[in-house]
Amino acid sequence: MSIEMQSHQAEAAPAEEPLSQWLINMPEPPTIWQEFVGYIRTNVLSKKRNKMKKKSSNPVSSYLKSVFPILIWGRQYKLNMFKKDLMAGLTLASLCIPQSIGYANLAGLDPEYGLYTSVVPPLIYSMMGSSRELAIGPVAVVSLLLSSMVSDLQDPVTDPIAYRKIVFTATFFAGAFQAIFGLFRLGFLVDFLSHAALVGFMAGAAIVIGLQQLKGLFGLSHFTNKTDVVSVLSSVFHSLHHPWQPLNFVIGSSFLIFILLARFLGKRNKKLFWIPAMAPLISVILATLIVYLTNAETRGVKIVKNIKPGFNRPSVNQLEFNGPHLGQVAKIGIICAIIALTEAIAVGRSFATIKGYRLDGNKEMMAMGFSNIAGSLTSCYVATGSFSRTAVNFSAGCETVVSNIVMAITVMVSLEVLTRFLYFTPTAILASIILSALPGLIDISGALHIWKLDKLDFLVLVAAFLGVLFASVEIGLLLAVGISFTRIILSSIRPTVEALGRLSKTDIFGDINQYPMATKTQGLLTLRISSPLLCFANANFIRDRILNSIQKVEEGEDDEQEVKRAKVLQVVILDMSCVMGLDTSGVVALEELHQELASNDTQLVIASPRWRVFHKLKRAKLEEKVKKENIFMTVGEAVDFYVRARTTSHDMC
Asked: Model-level pTM greater than 0.85?
C-alpha cells in the first residue's frame, strides 16, 4: 500500500485533531507597511503618550528631561557626591592636560586645540550623556585617524590653516553622523566593526602611533606624514643621518621609564591609583623646569613654544561646506564617527556593568554627536571616551559626570594661566606620555582568546592589524569589515543541510553527526535547513544538497550505513524551523524539489514552517501541491503520523 493510502486510513481512524490544523488555519502575518506603522506606534507614539501621561502638565519639561538627563539626576545630587567628583575631576585633569597636548600634536594641530577639545565636548556630554564614569576628550586612535586621512588632502606643514579647516569640518560631519545614528536608532551600523576587528585595529594603530612618536623622542626635523610602518621606519633611518641631539632622547626615555614605573605601582596597589594619574603632569612640570633652568633649548632640545592663551575660539567661519574635498571630508567624518562611538560605547558599557546600571546607546550617540558638533564650532576636533582616563576617573571615585565638568573647568583655567609656563615643555616628554598610554591599546590576552575561540575571527583581527600596520588606517578597516561581511555572505549562500535523528525516549530531533546515538526511522529521511533565509543566493544550493542527501540514502552510502538499498525511501521530512524568510527563488526551489521527489514516488513533507514562510507557501499555492496533510507543526508530529500510518497498514495486512 502507498504512503498516501496509509495516510488516508490513519486519518479515518478516530484521533484527536492534529496540531498541523493550527498551523494551516493561522491568520495572515502583518504586511511590511503594517509592521512599520506598528513600530512607530510602539517605539515613538506610545513613549510620547507615556511621557505626556506622566507629565501632562508640563510636556516641555518632560522633553527636556529626556534630552538632558542632568535635569533628572541633578535634583538628587548631594554635597558628599560633589566632594568625590571634585577629587576625581582634578585627578582627571592632571592626566588630561598633558595627554591633550600630546594628542593634538599627533593630530597635526597646535597644542591648544587638544586642550580646547577637553573643554567644550565634556561640558556638552555631561548634560546629555547617560554614562557616569566616561571621560570625554581627545584620544590617540582618533587623532591618528585624522592626521593620516586629512594629511592626504592637505599638508599641515605647508598650509596649517587649510588643514585645520578640514579637521573642523570633518569633526562637524562626525558629530552630525553620530547624532543621526542616535536619532534614527542606527546603532547597528557601529556593530559592523566587530570585536575582533577592533582589537586588531587598536593594536595596529598603537604600533603606528608609537613609531610616529620617534620623531618627538629623537627630536627629528624631517619626518613622513604617512602612517604605514615601512614609511615611518624609512623616515627614521634617513633622519638619523641628519644632525640630531641625543638630549631629546635622554629626557623622553627617562620620563617614559618614570611614568611606566608609576603605572606599575598603581596596578600593584589600587589605593595608589593617583600616582599613575599624576605621573604625566609631574613629568611635564619637571621636564619643563629642567629645560627652563638649564636653557636646554639652546642645546637642541625641541620645545612646544607658543601655546595661545585664552578660552576656546569660535570656528564657525572655518567650516567649509563648499570646498573641493567635501565628499572626502564627509567620508573622514563617518569613519571617525564610527570608531569614536565604538570606543566610547564599549568603554561606557564596561564601567556601567561594574556599577550596575544600564547605558542607553542611543542617548550616548546623541550626546557624542552634539558634543562634537559643538566642538567643531569652538575650535575642537573629534572627541570621544578615553579608556585610560575613564579608568582613572572610576578609580578616583567619581559619582557622576560632574567630574567631567570639574576637569573641563580645570583645563579652562590652565589655558588662561599655564600656557606661558608650557612654552618650555620639551616635545620629547609629550612623546613619552603618548608612548606610555599605548600598551593599553594592545590586548594580547584578548587576541589569544579570539584565536582559541574562533580562527576566522582571528583572521579578521590579523587583517585589521596588518592593514593598519603596512597600508593605512582606511585599508585596515576595509579589510576587517570586508572579511567579516564575506564570512557572513559565505555562511548564508553555503548553509548546511543536516540529517536528523530522534534522541531515545524524547521528542527531540538532533543532527546525527552531533548526536551519534540519535536513531533514524526506516523509510523516512528527516533533513533540516540551517539557514535563516531560503532565497536567490542559496536556493539552488540547498535544493542540490537535499537531493544529494536523498541519493546517498537510496544508494546506501550514508555515513552510518543504516539505510540499505532494500529499504525504500518513501518520505522526506523537511524541517524548516530555522528558515525565517523565503523569496520567489526559494519557492521555485521547493516546487522543483517536490516535482523531483514525486517523480520517484517519494513524498515531500514540510515541518515547522515559520509564520511568514508558510504564508508565502500558501500564496504560491505550494501547500496545495504538497497537500495540506503533508504539512506539520513539528518534526515529531510528522514522524509519528507516518509511523502510525505504516503500523496501521501492517496490521491490516
From this structure: no
Residue-wise DSSP of 495-530: --EEEEEEPTTSS-EEETTT-TT-B--TTEEEEEE-
Which of these, 607, 633, 643, 635, lies nearest to 509 by C-alpha position?
635
Spatial separation of the C-alpha atoms in residues 493 and 530, rounded to whole Å: 11
* Residue 73 backbone class (left: φ over 0; alpha: ψ -120 to 50; beta: rest): alpha
Which is nearest to 193 in space by CA: 334, 326, 385?
A: 334
Would you call 326 helix, strand, or coil by DSSP? Answer: helix
* Residue located via cell numbers 544529494: 548
pLDDT per residue over 588-644, tens digit each?
999 999 999 999 889 999 999 998 898 898 888 887 888 878 889 999 999 999 888
- Kindly report, residue by residue over 42-87, the tens digit of the pLDDT: 655 555 555 455 544 567 887 888 889 999 999 899 999 999 999 9
Nearest to 258 by CA among 99, 105, 429: 429
Cβ neighbour number for residue 168 with a 10 Å cutoff? 26
Sign of CA dihedral 637, 643, 647, 653: positive
Domain map of the chain by residue range?
70-485, 495-556+567-651
Among residues 97, 522, 451, 142, which one has the least CA distance to residue 304?
97
Superfamily of chain region 495-556+567-651: STAS domain (3.30.750.24)
